[in-house]
Amino acid sequence: MIEWLKNTPAQPVARLLLAHGAGAPMDSDFMNAMAEGLCERNIDVWRFEFPYMAERRRTGKKRPPDRQPVLLECWQTAIDEAQGERPLLIGGKSMGGRMASLASQAPAVTGLVCLGYPFHSPGKPEKTRLEPLQNLTVPALVVQGTRDPLGRKEEVADYDLPPALDWLWLEDGDHDFKPRVKSGYRQIDHWQSSIDEVGRWIHTIVGEKE
Length: 210
Hints:
- By secondary structure, the protein is of the alpha/beta class.
- It has one domain (about 5-205): Rossmann fold (3-Layer(aba) Sandwich), CATH 3.40.50.1820.
- Helices cover about 35% and strands about 20% of the residues.
- It contains seven helices and nine strands, in the order E-E-H-E-H-H-E-H-E-E-E-H-E-H-E-H.
- The longest helix has 20 residues, at about 185-205.
- The mean pLDDT is about 95.
C-alpha cells in the first residue's frame, strides 16, 4: 500500500501523481509548492515516496535510491491505486520524473510531467538518458532550467528528441530552478512559472478550460 500525501481541490479536472527526486522527500519545499499551487488550479495532486525514502523517514538514516526495478514497481503500484474517474497523469522531480517517463506506458496514464529531467549523470554528459523520452506514447511536458547541470538548454538542443514534446525553459535556472542573483530572476518566480505552465498544460491535455 502506498502512503499518500494528497492535495485535493473541490472540483478536480485531473489527478497528477508526483514523485520526489533522489535526495529530497515528498514534502520538500519544492514538492510542497508544486502540489499546493497545482491544487489551486483544480488538479488533484497525490505524492508518494519510494521505499528507500520512506525508510529514511522511519529511521532517520540516509540510504541511496532503490534500483530501477524497485522504483518502477513502486510506480506501477501507485498507478494501480490512484486510478479513478478523472484523467490520470504522472510525473516528478528529476529521478521521480525519469522513472515516471518509464512508467508512462501504463494504459491508465494520459500524460507525463517532468520537472528538471536528468538528461545525463552529473559531470557525464556523454551518458545520456534519452530513451524514455524517445519512446513516449503519451503527451509530455518538460520543465527545465537553462543552466541545469544535468541538461543545459544548449545540450538538449542537440539531442534526438520527439518534436511533440512540450517545454518550459526557465531562464538561468539550475536543477532546482534556482537562478543566479545577477540574472535578475528569482527561484520563487520560476517555481510559480512552473506551476502556471503545468496547470495550463494539464487543462489543455484533458480538454478542460482553466
